Amino acid sequence: MTLPPAYAFVKDFDPEPSKTLVMDRHYLLYAAKGAMRLEAEGRGWTLPPARAALIHAGREITVAMPQRLSACSVLFDTGFVAAPKASLSVFEMTPLARELVLACRTYGPDATLDDYGMQLFQLLAVTTWKLAETPSRAGLPSGKSDAVRKALALTETQLAGEPSFEMIATQVALSPRTLARRFSEELGMTWRQALRRLRMNHAIEALADPQRQITEIAFSVGYNSLSAFNTAFRDFTGLTPTEFRGSFGG
Q1: Which domains does the chain have, with CATH numbers?
Q2: Rounded to an integer, what distance in angstroms lies between the CA atom of residue 73 and that of residue 75?
Q3: pTM score, whole prediction
Q4: Which residues of the chain form beta strands (DSSP E)?
Q5: Ramachandran quadrant class, 42 (left: phi over 0; alpha: psi -120 to 50; beta: rest)
Q6: Cα–Cα distance measured from residue 105 to residue 108, given in angstroms and rounded to the nearest whole number
């Protein structure tokens, strides 16, 4: 079967463990509902409906689906559009970009791409390629050494409480001073900054589940009051949790 020069991949997923993907097309990765996790080039991101990733053809990525989600991604033949400027860019979606993606849903790999569809995909490419030039700063480096990777994983399991940096250092068989230096060298941030980013990324992921209450989410990521959570979330995203959830659309 000959695939059209651009098409939408639409599918509902149940939670799945991570898997590695390499596409032979430029890939706009997007979840219309729910959230997924993306890891590539030594960094990790959470992708709720307010955020998308543009991936250059041939670039290896790892995707995990921690919750039920509705994927609505788009694949572009390398001869149909110019190559993205970056090999990978995670960016914030605008209402226009979201509506364009959703409008492309009827053009799957088996559909006939008419003139309207061609123009729709071209407009989507122009819009998202431009958005991708301003990447999100919400990604978290994965770490290069086993010790830092393990320290991040241990921290992630303790977000609801008060994780101890000294205890985590002991668990990865390093002194706190050595582990702190590793965080600075490998991640470009302190452990406390990484903890905050992990908490915010988990909160963003939880907000993509409409059944979860914001107060419950706040406690689940280690905040003892809704006001403290709202302040931290606004500092991180520029929006309150309610506003951020509202940006997901219908």
Answers
A1: 6-131 (2.60.120.810), 143-246 (1.10.10.60)
A2: 7
A3: 0.91
A4: 6-13, 16-22, 26-29, 31-33, 36-40, 43-47, 51-55, 60-65, 69-76, 88-92, 140-141
A5: left
A6: 7
Tokens of 235: 């500092």
Tokens 């995203």 belong to 237
CA distance 87 to 23: 12
Q: Classify residue 104 by its DSSP letter.
A: G
Residue 46 has φ and ψ, to the nearest 5°, of -105, 130
> What distance in Å separates the CA atoms of residue 181 and residue 191, rounded to the nearest whole number?
10
pLDDT at 250: 62
Q: What is the largest CA-CA distance in the chain?
A: 63
User: If you count them, how many residues does the chain have?
Assistant: 250
Instruction: Please report where in the chains the tokens 């700063």 appear, as a residue.
Output: 137
Contact 77, 107 (CB under 8 A): no
Residue ranges of the chain with per-residue pLDDT less than 70: 250
User: pLDDT tens across 172-229, in order?
Assistant: 999 999 999 999 999 999 999 999 999 999 999 999 999 999 999 999 999 999 999 9
CB burial readout 54-75, b (16+ within 10 A) else e: bbbbebebebebbbebebbbbb
Tokens of 110: 């088996």
Closest CA to 113 of 76, 84, 78: 76
- Residue bearing tokens 């959470």: 46
